[in-house]
Amino acid sequence: MIDLSELQRDALVEIFNIGVGQAASSLSQIVGEPIMLSVPLLELLPGGHQAEAIGTIVRSQRVCAVSQDFSGDMDARAFLFFPEGKTREIVRRMVGESVSAAELSEMEQEALSEIGNIILNACFSSLSDLLHTRFSSSLPAYHLGMVGEVLPTRKDAEEELLLLLHIDFSLPSNEIHGYLVFLLTVPSFNALLGQIDSFLASAHGN
Amino acid sequence: MNATPIKSILVVDDSRVARMLIRNFILNLHPHWIITEAASGKEAVECVSRETPNYVTMDYNMPDMNGSDAAQQILQHAPKTVIALFTANVQAHTREQAEKLGIGFVAKPVTEASIKQALDFFASRS
After folding, report:
1. Nearest residue on chain B to A25, judged by CA atoms?
2. B88-101 pLDDT per residue, tens
3. pLDDT tens-digit profile of A106-137?
4. Total-model pTM
5. Among candidates B14, B89, B109 on the partner chain, residue whose Cβ is nearest the Cβ of A130
6. Domain covering B8-125 in this structure, CATH number
7. Which of B60, B122, B57 is nearest to B96 (CA)?
8. Residues in chain B whose beta carbon is closer than 8 A to a beta carbon of chain A?
9. Which of the residues A90, A166, B72, B99 has an alpha carbon 20 to 30 A from that of A182?
10. Could you report the predicted ipTM of this complex, rounded to two decimals?
11. Is A69 buried (19+), middle (13-18) or exposed (0-12) by CB count in 10 A?
């Protein structure tokens, strides 16, 4: 089982932290109130047990999610999860009070995809800037359903790792929490570790 | 010979990597400065109660106590210490908190440019 050293873990958390911080700033402007960010926690899980793990973290097996594929020196599928039924209020804050409930419902998918796009791209921009690597990204895809349906299933699940980044971001006016999850293949994870090691070596020597 | 006076600086960040980067960048520019590290807001407050530094770089999102609360407590004890928030939490709300406390605000990532920004702020308040 691949594991991270304390310093590798710390570097990854710090890099994602910078990305999420930038995304929160954009989101805060969109919803018109500060976004509360928790201290991030990173967990590495073997493939195959993803649905249970994510359901436990999100505290709901039914979720609303936005995913995006990133490819480059390493490939990853990134997810932003919300517990189902909690997202309407975020969209309401984005679009304002004047929009009817029917319109709001129509807009929800598009609005959440945009939020996902902002947050997931900010994380990968931070990875790209600090690790000097490039990524191209797919368009955001919106999902609603059971965690197991949202996550892709692979026959060779042992070839995959789940990088769980618990960054809990919430609006103070409502109890809305979002969570980030990155799915990587083992070779991609090794490529990421190599880049983190180079980053740490330059951090030591600057 | 280093012409600038030797200063003491407390680097507060829950990330070891961030502390390491900040320390190295500062020492590159000011090899004789005295650098102390704290991994939480609470630890920072304790450090300052033992010895007052000239400057503090302060992360915002940390366990136990956030950087703004820690800065407030430090300033009560050491009003002459110059503090700059050094954070990834770049929201307007966080900047406003820094402004209210009269402390600096520098956006992460830790780079040579952001370190210089923090040091310029310190110099302007010294």
Report:
1. B91
2. 988 998 999 999 99
3. 888 888 888 888 899 999 989 898 898 888 88
4. 0.83
5. B109
6. 3.40.50.2300
7. B60
8. 14-18, 20-21, 24-25, 28, 61-63, 87-94, 108-109, 112
9. A90
10. 0.78
11. middle
